[in-house]
Amino acid sequence: MIPRIHKRGSETIGLIRYLYGPGRHEEHTDAHLVAAFDPLTPDPGRDPQATYGQLQRLLDQPVDALPVGRRPEKHVWHLSVRASPEDPVLSDDDWASIARRMVAATGIAPDGDDAACRWAAVRHADDHIHIIATLVRDDGRRPRLHNEARRAQAEARAIEAEYGLRPVTPGDGTAAKRPTSAERHKAERRGKQPTPREELREAVRRAAAGAANEQEFFDRLASAGLLIRRRIAPSGDTLGYTVALPGDRNGKGEPVFYSGSKLAPDLSLPRIRERWTPTSDGTIQQQAPPSVTGPASARRRVTTAAWQALLVLDHGEDSVIAAQIAATGEVLDALAQTSAARTRHELQAAATAFERASRSHVRATRGHNHALRQAARDLVLSGPALGRGEDGAAAAMVIDMLFFLITAAAHWHAKKQHSQQAEAAHRAAEHLRAAYQAAAEHPMALLHQRGARLAPPWQRHHATAVRQALPELADRLIAEPGWSALMATLDEAQNAGHNPVTLLTQAAARRELDTAEGMSDVLVWRLRRMAELPADPQNSRSQRSNGALVVSSPGRSTQTGIGPASTSPRRR
Fold it and tell me: pLDDT digit string (tens) for 516-531?
């Protein structure tokens, strides 16, 4: 349940007309009173004899009783209380009780106070009510409204528990603005989801992901088909911008524009500029073009940048961590818009969920997140990836690493008591988990087949390497379904000249493994990245002969000190 205190107004009649009227987009239905300070309060919605003017005069009576010079200019108080979409439809009696609790909790009409402010609660939709009050008590004094927003939130949490409603995590003022009921009803009538506000927010986020400068940002907005208006200063500098969807029109047939700040707090032009301007020494850190333009190469570079960011989240200062988390959101946006069809839906959902986790009251120190922003830019410039071959396997590799990064972000937010952000990061991680399953299915199946075909001496050889490098985790690794894929990767690494024990030790030392659902999967991708093996096993440098995999250099196995006795083993 979400209570929202709106800006104070000066005209009671204007708000009454809006609450009882059709709404800006015909979204108000059956407007009527559910509760008021006096049971005999006239209801223009249900009583044909009652008028808006009668209700206004009754509410304004204490204000009008004051001398003109003592009347507050902004005397209209307005609170809306909205249920979550998952909640059941509440009755008028339920909403009446909620209204009384809210005016009592906020200080408008404390329980037992006969001289409290006058108020009325209007319902014109299934999922919310509006409470209008005038800010002069019957005794002529002003109400005590200190921290009324916080008290309304606390009361909402209590109401959720008592009514069995979905608990809403307390906010901190950094969330993006929710679509209004008018916007949601308009989208429903047109059979479109999400709402224009949400669609624009996603489009602007994607345009900003990895953008190197202001011109590139606006070029991307234009390429996305958005209508753009810039606010230009006399000097010619751009002060701000608004965007609209070509098909979203108001009653006059005009495009409905939204400023960046109305989409999300970090999408105003000044906040977007922070992404590419400030560094510790005051210089501008320009983004460079990608060194390799292939989607698979771009994904490998993201994997490396994400690993570096993980180390920052483990040991960095809060402001630097906040910058890394914000840049992680850009990487997810870039990855979602360049992903293959089989992972696109889950990656888009992960990017949308993580958007809430990318902002908090910890101010980000920009410049330190250059590697992730460059990686996001590389993804965009490298273009759409295929869902197969090296592109598909590299997608599994980067999703696996981003899962760890986003989980670490969730832990940091939880430690800072950023409850909404932590919850959002966990939701994003679940979508990444689903995307990983789709991306990794083929390459992991191929590795599993190769590992299962290894001759028993070589299987024992790789098991010995694991027991030597990871004695505490070896039994669990060998029992996992992904053990065969790990054996195949160790085999490839050894054929490429690497010492499996050394490689495993280094991979495990870089970050803990025992909390991972599939340790073998995690090690597969870490080893392939560290050993610079192709993400797709089909691109392995290993030689094939009569369907069998042959060691390209027989002597390499003896260099590890743990290889089979045969100097020229054949793998079956």
Answer: 678 899 999 999 999 9
